[in-house]
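Side project, low priority. Logging it here so it doesn't get lost.
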Amino acid sequence: MSLDTAHRLNSLGFAKPECETRVVVAMSGGVDSSVVAAQLAEEGYDVVGVTLQLYDHGAALAKKGACCAGLDIHDARRVAEKMGFPHYVLDYENVFKEAVIDEFADSYLAGATPVPCIRCNERVKFKDLLETARDLDADCMATGHYIQRKTGTHGPELHSAADANRDQSYFLFSTTAEQLDYLRFPLGHLPSKDATRALAAKYGLSVADKPDSQDICFVPNGNYASVIEKLRPGAAEPGEIVDMDGNVLSQHNGVLHYTVGQRRGLGIGGLETPLYVVKLDVDARQVIVGPKELLSAAIVPVREINWLGDDTFDAVSERNVMVKIRSTRAPREAVIRPLSATTAEVELLTPEEGVSPGQACVFYEAGGSRILGGGWIWRGY
């Protein structure tokens, strides 16, 4: 081996030949992770595909647009067979239920709007699966997420995807520095999803035209209420819809059927000013409604903060950043005021509607693409 070859870093950042670099690819059965596995296999890496079976909800096994169910396991296995690398299926149903589904049900019933995909990455994929990859003596683990890992002066950094329409940074803010050191995201630099599908076609993968997953994987057809009623019998107890002064305006058939910011389906007509759900009081079984301006908030309490900056989070009293309070919104200017190493008050310079407990508040570098971390929005008491 020449001196140049010995010091050359391969595409995954290791100073050794591809064939001596083992990479575990987390394969959901979709086109993204399939392309990652196929591309790395073609480049000569020692690829091991791993798929997690996360749930078995009967009809959901054949549901289009879900992930980690029966059909997807089959699709992942076919890709592995075609590209000639081993593939394993791990049963994580119990772990997934305890770490993700149960909290989803409980927080939803508490009036929050949870984001289970973040918890799945944090508690299952980047925790247990990552440990499995280490047990398999893998040098790293690769996923099909659209996000970029770049090497900075202080180590690996997390950056938004090149394609803003596909960027998944909101769902990966809780990735720790230690995990980031081990993870790789080969699709983050691609200009579009079309480029990913073109690679799938190039490798002759059967999933090249497979639709993207849309719903939360364990919520068939996006019907949260039906899933929660099965998980928590009796949760759909009726109650009152009241205004901000406590006046009863109507009745409802369960707080779990409502979300903050909702306007339709309240069953209240004949009013000059449209009413929106501004608060859910689960203990009193009340849906509190009011005018749209009550939905705006400038101060957002955030906890369980994961900080990815170069210094310690509470090293300064204020930080000027950009933040996202919903996955579908663009980052907005904000000031973070740390209260401790893991809690903060975030001031939005322009108040936003729909700031909801249970959602994430993700921090971005002002004027750049770097993700500085984030935390969970809560009520502040």
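Brief comment: The chain has eight helices and 17 strands.
Revisit when time allows.
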